[in-house]
Structures are given as structure tokens and as C-alpha cells.
Amino acid sequence: MSIAWGALGTVVIASLVIGVALIALVSFALVGLSARSQPATAGKRGLSPAAGTAVAGLCLAAGALIVGYGLYVIVS
Amino acid sequence: MDLTLIVIVVVVTALIFDFTNGFHDTANAMATSIATGALRPKVAVAVAGVLNLIGAFLSVEVAKTISSGMIDESRITPVVIFAGLVGAIVWNLLTWLLGMPSSSSHALFGGLIGASLVAAGVGAVHFGTVVTKVVIPALISPVLAGLVALIGTYIGYRATARADRGTVTKGFRAGQIVSASMVALAHGTNDAQKTMGVITLTLITAGVLAPNSGPPFWVIASAGIAIALGTYLGGWRIIRTLGKRVSHIESPQGFAAETAATAVILSSSHLGFALSTTQVATGAIFGAGAGRRLAGVRWGVAGQMAIAWILTLPAAGIVGAAAAWVASSGTVGTIVVAVAGVAVAAGIYAASKRKPVTAENVNDVPAPQPAEPPVRIAA
């Protein structure tokens, strides 16, 4: 009985990195989007609406890439 | 009994199992989306059903490896597969009645193993493969999914702590539509294929198909449709358990749970581990609950589920073994098993009618500690 520890390790690391990265990306995108409805006020750190939108766009694009890769894995 | 008749009976039984698999597992993809209001219940099950159907057509890799060396195919007959399927269906219906998210895959494996043990002896089951391919992934995957969801939830709440509440809630709800869809798609590719694999195996043992052939189109189509219909029917009892009884789930947690489940399912099926979608999804929901507030999770519910999980393989195995013992005695025995299976199913259905859980009342459960405001982890 041989247990494929290598493959198991790969699953653990890949799931952790991909899963956490995706959740973080969406969170950052939403922080960016918040700047549009809640602009930075004096004395409070924050993004300008334009910068927020840009951050959101970048994060969501990166997230979409990961989802696309997931679809590719399912199909192939 | 005519050979073709028993083959037809097995194919029909396999499709019935596929159907129970569908409604048993709707909760995996949709429980948190329904609980957080990201999708309305009826819409959620429709989306999950369609994606399961699409998923069934995307790949046949799992179907080709269904035997995966667990059972010595040369020593079993269609009657044994029939008995195994009856064991799996009975256990699936019973756990559904109790609202327990147990693994349909383990029920299937357990039923087949139990039936093979009785019909063909200990030598017909490769226990080493069962441990490495089924038991070890079953122990690791829910914990891993829970860990990913826990870290993800923590980061999600911390990162968005100062962001606009409305935007965050709406954004994560939108994200949940995507993440839930991914779980449903992954479920279709995994679980519909298990049934395809069983049917293909039966056709091969009966000599209808050449050895090593893939599933024919009608098998793929019927398995896809059976699981999609089951999914659309919706296992509301299990959806309620996962969406409402584990923890009070908010949209960032739902998104984290579904994303974690997808990451684990895809990465491990890519590497050939036959894990349980149900256990991964459940582990992720517990992780997401704990990521916001440890005390917000009902750990007693976790204990009940753990017991159901441990029991699934042996319990389905015992039913499968008993069914194989009776069915092996001949045509009359097979008919007795079929009639008994239908009777048990009808009894469970009748019992479920006494306290029905439907799309309308699925969310009407007091969540744990509803009076307390949600406490976010201090930034």
C-alpha cells in the first residue's frame, strides 16, 4: 500500500494558494469598488473612485483568469 | 433470468441512484447561496441542474477510472452491481430523510464493496486501494477545504472591514453566483460520471460492450439527465442543514466556502483522488463559519455529520451485502431485493411527507444566536 504523499501535498498547496488567492482578489476588488460609493474623506485613508475602479478591474480580471483555468481543468 | 433483462434492471437502478445522488448533493453547490439570498431557492436548483447536465458532458475521465482497481471486475456479475446500487440508494434516502449531508460516492463505493464481498469473497475487493483512494482523501479533503475557507473568510472580512457594507454584501453575492456555479459544474463532471462508470462496467461484464470501451452517448446523456433532474428537485432537507443549521452564513462566507470547495475538488480530481463533493463542501462551510466567529459554529451538528460520514461506507456496505446475499440465490431473490428496495424507498418518502421541507420553507429556521449582532474579527 503506497500513499501518494507527493500528489496529496500538491493538492493541499494548490487548494490553499488558489482558494485563498481568489477570495482575497474578490475582497480587494470590493474594497476598490467601495471607493466609488464611499470616497476617501479627509483624515481617512482611501482610494479615489477612479483608482478604486482600476484596482477592482485588475483584481477581477486576475480572478477571472483563475476561474478560466479551473474551467480548463474540468474540460481537459 | 434473461441476461438482457438483468442488464436493463441494473441500468435503471443505476439511473435511480444517480437521481438520488442529484437531490442529495444540490446542497453542496447551493446551500450557502440560498441561505445568503444570493440566489432564490427555485433559481438556484435550476442553475445547479443545468450545470450538472453540462458537466456530465464535459469529461469522461472519472467514468473510465470508476473501477479504479477497487473491485476485481472479472469476478462480479450484474446482479452484484444491482445489489450494491440498492445498498447505496437505501442509505442515500435514509440520510436525506435525516437531512444529513453524507457522501453519495461513499454510499456507492460501500454498496459495491459490500455486495462484492458477499458474492465473490474477500479477494474481490482490493482494500489497499480502498484506503489510499477513498479513505485517506476522505479524511484530508474536508479538513483542507475547511482550512482554505477559514483563511479565506478571515482575509475577506479583514480586507473589507472598512469598505462600504452594501457594496461588499452585493459584491460577494454576485461572486457567489459564479462560485456556486463552479461547484455545480464540478459536481456534474464528478458524480454523473460515477453512474456512467457503473453502467459502462455493467455493459462490459454482460458482454454488450468491448472491454476498456468508454461510455456510449446514450449512457452519458441518460446519466446527465438523471442527475440534473435530481438536482432540480432539490434536497431541501440537506440544503436547510448546511445553509442554516451549521452557522449563520453571510455572503462573504458563502463565497469563501464555495471557492474553497471548488479549489479542493478541482485540484484533487485533476490528480485522480476520488473524493466526496459533499464532504468537501460541508468542511468548507464549517471553515467559513469558524473564520468569522469560532463560537458561531454549531459543533454539535459537526459531530452528527462526522458520525454519518463514518457510518456511510459500512452501512451502505451492509445493505449491499444483504442484498447481494438474497439476490445471488436466483431470479426470485433478485425480485425480492427489488421489491424490498421499492418498499423501503416508498416508506422513506411517506415519512418525509409528515414534515416536508420545500423551496418555500427551506430558510425558515432560527439561525444559531440570531439575536447577537455579527462580530467581525478585530482588524
Automatic annotation (TrEMBL), chain A:
Source species: Pseudonocardia yuanmonensis
Alphabetized UniProt keyword annotations: Membrane, Transmembrane, Transmembrane helix
UniProt protein name: DUF4190 domain-containing protein
Transmembrane regions: 6-33, 54-75
Automatic annotation (TrEMBL), chain B:
Keywords in alphabetical order: Membrane, Phosphate transport, Transmembrane, Transmembrane helix, Transport
InterPro entries membership: Phos_transporter
Matches recorded under Pfam families: PHO4
Superkingdom in the source lineage: Bacteria
Transmembrane feature ranges: 6-23, 43-60, 80-100, 107-128, 134-157, 217-239, 306-326, 332-351
Compartments reported by the entry: Membrane
Topological category with respect to the lipid bilayer: Multi-pass membrane protein
Family note: Belongs to the inorganic phosphate transporter (PiT) (TC 2.A.20) family.
Listed name of the protein: Phosphate transporter
Upper taxonomic lineage: Bacteria, Bacillati, Actinomycetota, Actinomycetes, Pseudonocardiales
